[in-house]
Design brief:
By secondary structure, the chain is α/β, with parallel strands linked by helices. The chain is 39% helix and 16% strand. Strand 3 (73-77), helix 4 (86-95) and strand 4 (99-103) form a beta-alpha-beta unit. It is globular, with a radius of gyration of 14 Å. Bound molecules: ligand CA2.
Length: 151
């Protein structure tokens, strides 16, 4: 598909620290390495990615709004904002682009405060618990969903 829209891969707070701390939870891989792997998987599927990270909730909201017309689908690891952000929930509902909530760890198997997902209540689906592989599965799901809707 020559004019295929990109898949946006958006990352929330503290994910820039990946590979430096808490490897027992998040592994040794860095966010830059995840970006490379996502780009490679997307290319195999005939897609490009736009990959970003921010520690600022409003910036993530702005990127979701930007994605409304520009993205085929969105892979979103909102980090801790997953569990708290009505603003991200509302933005996802507003844009009408399928969002795949994505996590390295499995929040359902962790502390109770991670069991609620305001992002997940607005997302199309959730992939969690597979480390960096979660992102690759999410990119794959995003590409398939986009193909189905011909975006
Ligand atoms: O498992 C995930 O992907 C999370 O989104 C990661 C978030 C956490 O708040 C969510 O409940 C689940 C935390 C990201 C923080 O990443 C760090 C990486 C290295 C060192 C410290 C934090």
């Amino acid at each position: 598909m020559p004019d295929a829209k990109p898949i946006y891969v958006l990352n929330g707070p503290n994910l820039n620290l990946l590979g430096t701390r808490e490897p027992h939870i998040y592994g040794h891989i860095t966010l830059a390495e995840i970006e490379q792997a996502c780009a490679a998987r997307a290319a195999q599927l005939g897609r490009t990615i736009v990959f970003r990270q921010s520690n600022i909730e409003g910036e993530l909201v702005n990127w979701l709004q930007e994605a409304k017309d520009k993205a085929a689908a969105i892979v979103l690891n909102a980090g801790a904002y997953t569990h708290t952000s009505v603003a991200l929930h509302d933005a996802i509902k507003a844009i009408g682009v399928p969002v795949i909530e994505t996590h390295l760890s499995n929040p359902a198997a962790r502390e109770e405060f991670r069991h609620v997902s305001l992002v997940g209540q607005a997302a199309k689906g959730v992939i969690a618990g597979f480390g960096a592989t979660s992102y690759l599965l999410a990119v794959e799901a995003a590409a398939l969903i986009a193909q189905e809707s011909q975006t």
